[in-house]
Design the sequence.
């Protein structure tokens, strides 16, 4: 290892090789990042085999699950990481990780960079949760988030000096996506999807925060518009039973198919197969699912929330709408499906725009925040 190589202790909430969330992208990027950065990886949960991260010099999986013991363990592992030369701590979302690494860093003259990219203030219902969030943001040296819009939102909501907020873009493996191809007829047959219907795709946590409970109402309106479609709903989460109930209540079961959780390693078939990606979220940061859609050449209709507007090309702007407006969401889907020229312009523009969200760009910007 080069003596001048940047050293970072990276704290990650969990590891699961079959993950269906954005963590899948982190695992892949860490392997490439490790070629340029010396990484001490701490996994709060899960168990990684040596073959999972062969490029990373040190991988430590926490032993304790009981929160007080896990917190103490994490603090001492951070101290160990600091002793062996890791001045910088990068914590992905974990509030426990942010606090423990901040205490360790303050005692040993290190610095903590805390990634958070969402709109947690919308769901901090108690005064205690709001105070806890502010304390965490005061503990860390820098907040890291996904784009300039989110930077301004965090600064406004929590009173954080913009100088203490860094921006690192989200990313996907563009090579992996560009090399993926499908036989649409064969895949439709395999998935029992008629050839003559549009495929509308939702991939996200099945939660009210992500607007999953709005899907049956949007589907109902599309049926009334006589649009021939199948809506594929991929994911799992706390609102699953509610969504299933609403599908039955709205009588849209023929058109809305709940496919459950699908590992991210297998998800590209659906992005390639779909005609429109639908994201009716009530809360977002810089959603990676939209980056995946853009990389797949899949136009989207999405709620204009968080950093979504800044994320996409200008051709996407007509297809953003105010969250919770199910009628407008359905109107946008209808408009996009019925205008072939606009649809094709959207596809071309997003394929160009997504080049800004490559793994290489992420690694470049990641290294910059420590300089």
Sequence:
């Amino acid at each position: 290892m080069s003596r001048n190589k940047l050293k970072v202790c990276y704290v990650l909430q969990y590891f699961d090789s079959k993950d269906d969330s954005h963590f899948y992208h982190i695992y892949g990027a860490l392997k490439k990042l490790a070629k340029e950065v010396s990484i001490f990886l701490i996994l709060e949960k899960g168990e990684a085999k040596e073959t999972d991260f062969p490029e990373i010099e040190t991988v430590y999986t926490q032993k304790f699950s009981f929160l007080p013991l896990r917190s103490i363990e994490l603090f001492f592992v951070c101290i160990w990481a600091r002793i062996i030369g890791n001045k910088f701590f990068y914590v992905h979302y974990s509030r426990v990780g942010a606090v423990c690494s901040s205490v360790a860093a303050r005692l040993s003259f290190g610095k903590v960079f805390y990634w958070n990219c969402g709109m947690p203030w919308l769901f901090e219902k108690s005064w205690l949760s709001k105070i806890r969030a502010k304390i965490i943001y005061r503990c860390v040296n820098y907040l890291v988030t996904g784009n300039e819009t989110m930077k301004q939102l965090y600064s406004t909501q929590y009173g954080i000096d913009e100088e203490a907020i860094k921006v690192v873009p989200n990313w996907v493996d563009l090579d992996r996506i560009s090399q993926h191809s499908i036989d649409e007829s064969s895949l439709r047959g395999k998935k029992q999807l008629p050839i003559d219907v549009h495929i509308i795709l939702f991939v996200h946590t099945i939660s009210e925060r992500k607007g999953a409970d709005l899907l049956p109402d949007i589907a109902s309106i599309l049926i009334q518009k006589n649009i021939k479609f199948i809506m594929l709903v991929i994911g799992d989460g706390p609102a699953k039973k509610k969504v299933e109930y609403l599908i039955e209540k709205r009588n849209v079961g023929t058109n809305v198919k709940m496919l459950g959780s699908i590992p991210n390693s297998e998800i590209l078939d659906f992005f390639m197969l779909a005609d429109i990606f639908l994201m009716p979220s009530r809360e977002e940061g810089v959603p990676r699912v939209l980056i995946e859609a853009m990389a797949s050449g899949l136009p989207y209709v999405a709620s204009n929330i968080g950093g979504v507007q800044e994320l996409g090309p200008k051709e996407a702007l007509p297809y953003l709408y105010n969250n919770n407006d199910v009628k407008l969401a359905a109107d946008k889907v209808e408009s996009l499906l019925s205008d072939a020229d606009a649809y094709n312009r959207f596809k071309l523009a997003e394929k160009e725009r997504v080049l800004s969200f490559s793994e290489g760009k992420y690694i470049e910007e990641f290294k910059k925040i420590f300089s």
About this structure: The mean pLDDT is 95.
